[in-house]
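Recall that a protein's primary structure is simply its ordered list of amino acids. Everything else, from secondary elements to tertiary packing, is in principle encoded there. The following example makes that idea concrete.
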Amino acid sequence: MIADSVHAIWCREFQRDDIAFDDDFFALGGQSLIMVKIQGALIEELGVEVTMDELFRSPTVASISAYIESLDAVTP
């Protein structure tokens, strides 16, 4: 499941295991270096490129996961 993979990436990059699926990236103390690491992990581990703009618009595990899942719906 995409959400579980995204959650694992966030937990690893924030070095926390108590992140909820609806916790806000910025409220968790997220900053540009963590965002770049998450973006790289999404490419490497899930094979999907999520732009920085989209990471700002979708600042939770749940919202990023929904965005990634929506990409499959529009892929030919």
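The radius of gyration is 11 Å. The mean pLDDT is 93.
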